[in-house]
Amino acid sequence: MSKFAGLGGRLYRGETSVDFIEKRRRWYAFSGILIVASAIALSTQGLHLGIEFKGGSSFTVSKAGVSLDAANTAVTNAKIPGEVIVQKLGSNKVRVQTGALTSVESNQLQDSLAKEIGVTAESIDTQIVGPSWGKEITRKALYGLFGFLIVVLLYLAMAFEPKMAISAIIAVIHDVFITVGIYALVGFDVTPATVIGFLTILGYSLYDTVVVFDKVRENTRTITSTSKMTYSQAANLAVNQTLVRSFNTSLIALMPVGSILFVGAGLLGAGTLKDLSLALFIGLATGTYSSIFIATPILARLREREPAMQALAKRVSARNAAPAMANSVAASAGAQSAVKGATKRGPRNQPKRNRRR
Predict the structure, then answer these.
(1) Is 187 left (phi over 0), alpha (psi -120 to 50) or beta?
(2) Quick one: what percent of the chain has pLDDT higher than 70?
(3) Among residues 114, 129, 144, which one ends one of the domains?
(4) Which residues contact 193 (CB under 8 A, 6 or more apart)?
(5) Rounded mean pLDDT of the chain?
(6) 244-259 confidence digits (pLDDT tens)
(7) What are φ and ψ of residue 297, in 5° steps?
(8) What is the rounded distance in angstroms from the CA atom of residue 75 to the CA atom of residue 300?
(9) CATH number of the domain residue 144 falls in
């Protein structure tokens, strides 16, 4: 534990550093694997849209000790066409979701559920969503998503710089795509709560990225006049300086969301919470990852292509090479003086012996 004591201070002062920028190809490769896996999950399984988006009917029955077997038997007896999803919500609720039904089919299923489970038909909570209303919700959700991205792009371009805005948006798209891919892989229904979760993780991802970019801007404000470090080195220092802060805030945010997901939805069976909590949990984790491993390396790569930053890199390289050259020259001069000193020495005078006659 002693080596972790004061780690945040050493990272901030640059005494200890993790080279995030130079190792960006590793992070890109890891993100590429996640993106490919998400694309495969979306193409093979697709998203399971809830009835709020595709339309349909939902029947929720509340009774102590209700079982899925009774609900499945009721669905079979009612002979409902199309795909039917039967879920247990907690210990006392069962929800049956179907496609669009006629009034006759809806009443038939409602009566069958009441008979098999042992409740009255009036106590069953019935929700019917038309396909046109579902399409309207989908359209508004997409409008909200694209509008959010455009507004954020304009704000970051004005508050920081265009290349920071581009890097941040790439990181956000990266987060959303991976989250959607994992959502498709798990098979959870996409509900309005899921959309709320997606919009929330967009904001959190940008929040963490803006914190890092603000430190990058502070470190690079006068970088061309000092010639002490390149833009990539200054950006890497900024990531290290904010690393502990990003980790702590992300951990604090993930703990309650993880409790909702694993305890609320997993152990207690609160199915209405799993849609939101899964999107938040994955999004918060990928948002923290992208702000450190994706957004800042992309920004450094974009800025290093500028002629001013290329000239700065040459000056920094020459400046770092000068002490090494001076040390090499000094060592060579010392070796030459040692050789000259050895050649100036004459033959060794032996002591004369007194010969006896």
Answers:
(1) left
(2) 81
(3) 129
(4) 272, 275, 276, 279
(5) 79
(6) 888 888 888 888 888 8
(7) -60, -35
(8) 58
(9) 1.20.1640.10
Please report the DSSP string for 182-241 in residue order. Answer: HHHHHT-EE-HHHHHHHHHHHHHHHHHHHHHHHHHHHHTTTHHHH-SS-HHHHHHHHHHH
- Mean pLDDT throughout 143-164? 84
Number of domains within the chain = 2
pLDDT in tens, 259-271: 877 776 655 555 5
The parent domain of residue 138 ranges over 10-49+133-310
Same domain, 109 and 141: no
Distance CA 121, CA 176 (A): 42
Same domain, 121 and 105: yes
Of residues 51 and 46, more confidently modeled: 46
Enumerate the β-bridge partners of residue 58: 97, 127
Q: Provide the CA 42 distance to its chain's centre, in angstroms.
A: 18
Rounded CA-CA distance 43/9 in Å is 46
